[in-house]
Design goal:
Elements (H helix, E strand, L loop, with lengths): L1 E5 L2 E14 H4 L5 H5 L14 E13 L2 E5 L21 H7 L9 E4 L11 E4 L2 E4 L5 E5 H14 L1 H16 L3 E4 L4 E3 L2 E5 L8 E7 L2 E5 L8 H4 L11 H15 L4 E4 L8 E7 L2 E5 L1
Parallel strand pairs: 4-5, 5-8, 8-9, 13-14
Antiparallel strand pairs: 1-2, 2-3, 3-4, 6-7, 10-11, 11-12, 12-13, 14-15, 15-16
C-alpha cells in the first residue's frame, strides 16, 4: 500500500491488479518511436517492449472523520467478456481490511464513472444475491453518468448491461445511492470536478486541506504518456475530442503548481507533479 498526506487528509491506494497493454491498443495514435522519444517516460510506466503499465486500484480518502472510497476496481464473481476480468477471485477485500479499513467504516463510495474497472466492488455476492460491499456507505454516482448508462446499456448489451445489473442496480435496490452533480462537494475538503470525454459524466476528485492540494484523475488519462502527449486518447474514450480538450485543460490548470496529481491507473509511485517543458508537459514523481 502507498499513500499521501494532503494537509489534514490522508489518501491510500489499494491495488487490485496490474496489467500491461500494447501501446497501440491502449493509445491507438501512439507509436513506439514516439513513446521512446519521451525521455522522462520509463519504468514503471512503460515496459522495454513498449507496453503501457496500468494498475487497477481503489483509493481511500480520510479527512475530517470521514472515509471516502474512490472507485472500486473489478470485483469478484462477476461474469465479464474479458478473460482477464471474468469471474475474478482476488484477495482485494482482505488487503483492504489489512490496510486498516473495515468495510463497515466507509462513509461514502464515489464512482468517477461507471466503467467495469471502477464499479466492481460496489457489490459482493452473498447467498446468491448482490449486496453493497460497504454496508454503511452512501454511494455517490454522477447523475449525468448514470442517465447515460441507463439510456444506452440495454441497447449495447454485453458488459455494459451486466455492469448495471450486478454493480449498480443492487445499490438502488438497497436504497444507498445518491445521484449527484458533477461539481458535488462531499465535504469542504473533497469536491468533484467535471472532466467529461472519457464518459459523458466522468468526474475527477479535488482534495484541498490546510493549503495543500491534490487531484485524483479518474480516467481523463490512463498513463503518464498522455501527459507528454495529451492528443493520445484511449481506445475506451466515448468522445475522443472532448477527452483531449479535458486532458489539456486539466494539465494546463495544475502545471508548475504544487498540486499532487494522483493517476488512478498509474502504477506505483502513482502520484507526482505536472511541469511545463519545451515539448509541453512532463510528469515528475
Amino acid at each position: 500500500m502507498i499513500g499521501w498526506t494532503v494537509g489534514d487528509a490522508r489518501i491510500t491506494a489499494i491495488p487490485e491488479g496490474n496489467y500491461a497493454f500494447p501501446h497501440g491498443l491502449l493509445l491507438p495514435a501512439s507509436t513506439l518511436a514516439e513513446l521512446t522519444a519521451i525521455d522522462w517516460l520509463g519504468a514503471p510506466f512503460i515496459t522495454p517492449e513498449g507496453n503501457l503499465a496500468l494498475t487497477v486500484q481503489a483509493f481511500v480518502i480520510e479527512v475530517d472523520g470521514k472515509r471516502i472510497v474512490v472507485d472500486t476496481c473489478m470485483g469478484n464473481d462477476k461474469p465479464r467478456s474479458s478473460p482477464a476480468g471474468n469471474m475474478m477471485q482476488t484477495d482485494f477485500l482482505e488487503r483492504f481490511e489489512g490496510a486498516g479499513f473495515a468495510r463497515e467504516s466507509i462513509d461514502f463510495v464515489l464512482c468517477t464513472h461507471l466503467h467495469v474497472d471502477h464499479v466492481g466492488w460496489n457489490t459482493m455476492l452473498e447467498d446468491g444475491r448482490w449486496i453493497p460491499t460497504f454496508p454503511n456507505a452512501r454511494y455517490l454516482i454522477g447523475r449525468a453518468e448514470y442517465e447515460f448508462w441507463r439510456a444506452t446499456a440495454a441497447a449495447r448489451g454485453g458488459d455494459d448491461a451486466a455492469i448495471l445489473a450486478d454493480s449498480v442496480q443492487p445499490l438502488f435496490d438497497h436504497g444507498v445511492v445518491e445521484l449527484v452533480a458533477t461539481d458535488h462537494a462531499i465535504c469542504p475538503e473533497v469536491k468533484l470536478a467535471p472532466t467529461p470525454g472519457h464518459t459523458p459524466g466522468h468526474v475527477s476528485v479535488r482534495i484541498e486541506s490546510a493549503g495543500e492540494r491534490a487531484l485524483l484523475s479518474g480516467d481523463f488519462l490512463h498513463n503518464p504518456a498522455q501527459i507528454a502527449r495529451p492528443d493520445w486518447g484511449a481506445y475506451v474514450d466515448e468522445d475522443s475530442i472532448r477527452s483531449e480538450t479535458t486532458r489539456r485543460a486539466q494539465l494546463d490548470e495544475i502545471a508548475d503548481l504544487p498540486v499532487l496529481l494522483i493517476g488512478t491507473h498509474f502504477p506505483a509511485p502513482t502520484a507526482g507533479y505536472v511541469e511545463r517543458n519545451p515539448a509541453g508537459f512532463r510528469f515528475r514523481t
